[in-house]
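To whoever is on call:

I kicked off a structure prediction for a single chain this morning and the downstream step that reads the tokens threw a length-mismatch warning. I double-checked the sequence; it's 238 residues and nothing unusual in it as far as I can see. Pasting both halves so you can look.
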Amino acid sequence: FGDGAGGDFGRFDSALVAMFRLTAGMGWIESLPWAGPDGALQYGHVLFVTSYVVAVNWTLLQVSVAVLLDSFVTARLGSQREPEERAAEERAEGSTMRSALDPLLDRLASDFVDDADLTARLRALFKMLDSDDSEGLNSQQLSMGIKKLDFKPRIHISDSDFAIITQGGALCAPGGRLGPAEFEVAMRRQLRNHLQRQLNTALWAGPMGRAEAVQLGALKALFLEQMRAHDEGARRDA
């Protein structure tokens, strides 16, 4: 339009100002009249101005505003969630003191079917660890036996781990060793503690629906009650 509208489009800077005024909704560009002197419609001028308004003012600007608003809302929600997520992670970490036996306990927790099946699995495990058939495991024998199991990374049991597993030797048979019965009691307690940690982790893992929280809480209560009943039965048998 440089020839017919030199006032607005004769130079780049004046054309830029004219297009900015059109974008800002300041009215029709006077140097591009929509009708000629005879009243006939100037199709070229009308098509250019209307297509520019539709493409830029009604489309691109609206999309840009929507994208900016979406980015702002997302960033705001993210900044609000971060402290909550960090707090949930800290609570979960605080409630999940890991055990050296966790890989083994994970396997047991996922594989056993019922109480009798768990007893059978623990007895079979004891036989695997009791390589010299002495019917007893001390700290060194337990550590060496578990190292041979197919776990990656390997499970390493230290003397302090053995003390924790046996509750400072309280669960050991005379002589400070774990017999088959003592081993089962110790492993059941370790499995109970492990499952409690997993339930705590699930409860504190992050936002969840009220129904999920109630279900997990009920599951934890039932689990604790079952384990308490089992411990009382074991004490009566003793």
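Update from on-call: the warning came from a stale cache, not from the record. Cleared it. Sanity check on the structure: The CA atoms of residues 107 and 151 lie 10 Å apart.
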